[in-house]
Structures are given as structure tokens and as C-alpha cells.
Amino acid sequence: MMPYTRIVEYSSPELNEPVLVQGLPGLGYVGKISVDFLMDHLRTSRFAELYSSYLTLEDGSLGINVGNDGGFYLPKYDFYAYTDTIPNLILLTGNIQPISWGQFEVCDQVVSFAERLGCKMVVAIGGYRTPVATERGTVYAVVDGDSIREKLQGSSVKITSGGQVNGACGLVLGLSRQKGMSCLGLLGATDVTYPDAIAAKSVVKTLAWLFSLSLNYAELDRAMAEIESRMEKFGEMREAALRSDQQPREPEERGRAGYYV
């Protein structure tokens, strides 16, 4: 089968200085939980979807997901626009990472789409595996220039030194830099609890500070509990797949003091 990856656009939002913010499943589901919260609790609208033969079901096979209402859909990425503040945000999330040999193709499509929409900056969110319990919830940053480094000074965010960021999180940053975009990786330290709402909450607070987002943090706590419940169901599906020897493809990366994804 020939590789298949395409983006379907349903509308063309008017965007002002847009920034792409990507959050996909990974360590502690930090990226996905963070973007899911923003998607649900800001005034966002879905305007595009990405479909690819490199996006599989949770057990690694091809097919469709069936909802509780009997409806179904192909595995996909969703693009949401938030335009109430400047810069505008393009939120990207999905239920699974691309399979390893298709990550470059999918990420290239994402970055090219963001470039066409006028993005000058890309933020990729992931988890950072730490063996130190007191580090849980700390946010680490991967930066590509002095301007972002200076912006983060005075915050609680720590700059990483050494290591690797593989998978879709790392590839999006690398490909964006090739196109001359400003790049920032935000990695929530996690002990790999599934899902890790503590690490995700720290990343959400960092995003709110960076982009002047007005968030209700009591609402954030409630939402994190709801998302935890949602992600626990996803985790049960993952465990069922493991028990049937159909392990989902969830890439991990090794860093200086842990794993990034």
C-alpha cells in the first residue's frame, strides 16, 4: 500500500500571528492532557483534520474507532483554532503517535501546514521521565534561541542540557527549525503515572503564562480529574492490547536524566 497522509480543511479561520501547539499521547500523556484541556476550556473551533496510513488503532492495527453512540471514525489528528488572544493558537492533538517509520512523513505534513497558515513559532509538549519524585510537575524546556531563553528567565521552567527528544515531539521541533520557525519544547516531569495530571497542570500553567491565557484554575483541577478518567479508559484499552500481545506503538526517547516524549 502506498503511504497516505492528507489534511482535510473544513474552514479557513482568520489567524493573527498563529502559534502551533502540539500535544500527543506519550509519557504520562502529558502532551495530550494539556492540549485537551485548552481545547475543551477555551473558545476553540476545529477547522482541520489529518488522516494517515501511519496513524493506527491503539493496538497497532488499521481500522476505525467506534464510539459509545455507535458512530465511528478513522484515527486522526485534530486542529483547533483559538483567536481570542494574540498570538492566536493552533492546537493539535490526537489519540496516538504515528508509527515509528511514518513519523517523519506525518510531522512534515503538520509543519508544512502550520507554515502555510502563517505560524512563526511551534510549541511541542511532552513528558520527561524523572527518577526523582520531588521533580514531578517541574517543566523543562528545549529552546532554539536566545529570545525564548530570555523569555523563560524568571519563571520556574528549567532549561534542559543534553539528551534527546525523539518521536513526534522531537521531529516537529526539528522540522520547524529547518523552516526558520521559532521552536520550544515543554516537557512535564513525570514518574510515568498514566495519566499524570500533575505534570500536565504544570505545563498548562506555563502555556497560560507564555500566551496570556485567562484560565480558571479551580476549573482546571476539575477538568484534570475528568481527563484523568477519560485517559484511564484509554489506558485500559492499552492494557487489553498488551494482554493480547498486540502492543501499541508508543515511542519513548532517552535523555540525560530520563526519557522525553
Report on this model:
The chain has a single domain, classed as PAC-like subunit (Rossmann fold). 33% of the residues lie in helices and 25% in strands. A hairpin with a 4-residue loop joins β12 and β13 (259-260). α1 packs across α5 and α2 crosses α4. It is an alpha/beta fold. The protein has helices at residues 30-41, 103-116, 146-152, 167-178, 197-211, 217-243, and strands spanning 5-9, 19-23, 44-52, 65-66, 72-73, 77-82, 89-94, 121-129, 139-143, 158-159, 182-190, 253-254, 259-260. The chain contains 6 helices and 13 strands.
Q: For the report, how would you describe the main beta sheet? A: 9 strands, mixed
Give the strand tally.
Answer: 13
Uncertain residue segments: 248-259
Into how many domains do the coordinates divide?
1
Return the CATH class.
Answer: Alpha Beta
* Oligomer description: single chain
Whole-Å distance between the termini? 29 Å
CATH superfamily: PAC-like subunit
- What's the helix-strand series? EEHEEEEEHEEHEHEHHEE
User: Which sequence of strands runs across the widest sheet?
Assistant: 1-3-6-7-2-8-11-9-10
Structural class designation: alpha/beta
Instruction: Count helical runs.
Output: 6
Query: In percent, how helical is the residue content?
Result: 25-40%
* CATH architecture label name: 3-Layer(aba) Sandwich
